[in-house]
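Hi X.,

You mentioned you wanted examples for the new student's onboarding notes, showing what a folding record looks like when two proteins sit in one file. Here is a clean example. The first protein comes first, with its sequence line followed by its structure tokens.
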Amino acid sequence: MDIMSAYREVGSYRAAAEICGTTHKTVKRVVQRFEADQSGQTPPPRTPRLNNYDVVADLVARRVKTSHGRITGKRFLPIARAAGYTGSARNFRRLVSRSKVQ
């Protein structure tokens, strides 16, 4: 059954969720989005998510440029950790790889 149909039929988020096999939070979100669409309101824009490597992205770009793309993420990771990087080693290697391509 459609979430909106179930909500109209039973009148509560939890009962509609039980009928549809989802959570009451999902039902609430769907109902609010539907009602906002019907009233002509535009939803607030989503804020872009920050990446855990944003703190050191410019440091990586500078280091890759000065080394002419010869530095590896594995060697550069301790320097980045000292500069405040807290993410995984694999994610950092991806950042270095993308910086080398650019």
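Then the second protein repeats the pattern, sequence line and then tokens:
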Amino acid sequence: MFTGLLAAAILAAACSKPSSQASYTPSFIAPPAQVKVTEYSFGVSPTSNFRSMYEVFQPIIEHINGGLSDAKLVLEVSRGLDEHQQKLRARHFAFALSNPYHTVRAAEGGAYRIVAKLGDDAAFHGVWAVRRDSGIAALSDLKGKTVSFPPTSALAGTMMTQLQLQQAGIDPRRDIHASYVGSHHASIMTVYSKGAAAGATWPLAWATFQHLHPAEASELEVRFATEPLVNMGIVARDDVPPALIRRVAELMADMHKTEKGRALLAQIPSTRFELAGDSQYQAVREFITKYKLVFNSLPE
């Protein structure tokens, strides 16, 4: 009987003890809201070889992305100038850094508008790469010789240098053997390999060539600079949100204000980006008009 009473007491105590499991009320914490990030392509005109363009501009794109909260720029470097121009025509790029000729052409149709540009306009001109032992002392020495050019729509490397020849009394359609070799890099390398007496290019491509190929560059020099024009422009497509366009342009224009930004710009090489619009490219439009009057057509 005692055993039965003890068992009953234990059972009663167990029943009267509050159950921690019964009193537990789970609470749920909502996960943080996910910010939707939209990607926008940023095309860069190939001013030198494909690999070096990525090495230079990918860190710049990453720097800009660091200042964006709900958007991400994705770098695209076309394999050639013609491909870059075709993508502009097809409205493929959301943003694009292009030579001034392509910048103006892209803005003409209304699909893009000019929002910024590279600074250092004095650096945008054509030059001629020649071998140090070539004996070429004047533009007139190019008559009858093979001369290499980047694509026909390369403003500094082809259009400006050919107009320079014409103004010096040398018709590039008759007085030289023009060889279009596909890129600024190839134009310079053709001279090094003695495939051309001179190669038309521009200072940025020459600086890149010197960096990538110092031994080959030591056997060359550049001469006969053209008059400068407005530097490369940045356009934004008409369907990109205006607030994003402003933010990207401002981030680029502010890069030169920090040590990190200046280091990134030096790789181009340039000292700054600048805010810009159509008015900054009036001189380019005037050049295009002059070029068409002389050669009766424009590059595609």
